[in-house]
Amino acid sequence: MKLDKGDYPVLGFNFKVTSTIAMGVNNPTSNKKSSTLGPDESFFQSISGISASVGGSEIYNSGINNRQFKLPTSTTYQDLKLTRGIVKKSSSLGDWCRNFLIKDSSTYQIERRTLNVMLLDRSRKDILSTWSFFNCYPREIDIGAFNADKSEIAIESLTLTYSHFSQDI
């Protein structure tokens, strides 16, 4: 039996991220055009939090003690965590997170974005799968520890929350 390329598991080390400003329902007064991340900021060291789970509710039938019914409730999502080495060059995604979380401003405005995580093939030419995360906003920026005893890359982690996601294969 001959194996096809589609029979092998996908490798998870070639991926990139793009972002667009959410328009319409979530930003009804926004007059900004859709913007995407530049090539300098679309690659991260790791991405985690692509997860959805459904809660459950148990119902017991009165009089029948050895039966229960499990019914699904709402879907919950983990936060999306993007990790990369800190670079001196400014990025629109990093600026968006910093402006939302730490900028001293008299007005508080949430600019939501749609983030797309694309899993690429070995050559980085073809997109194997795409996850789109809707209504994202930053929840945390975490700068890794600095240590004078070690020669390590300074790490920045961006944590985003979102309303739901979809996957295109």
From TrEMBL:
Coiled-coil positions: none
Top-rank taxon: Bacteria
Pfam families listed in its UniProt record: Phage_T4_gp19
Protein name per Swiss-Prot or TrEMBL: Phage tail protein
Organism: Psychroflexus planctonicus
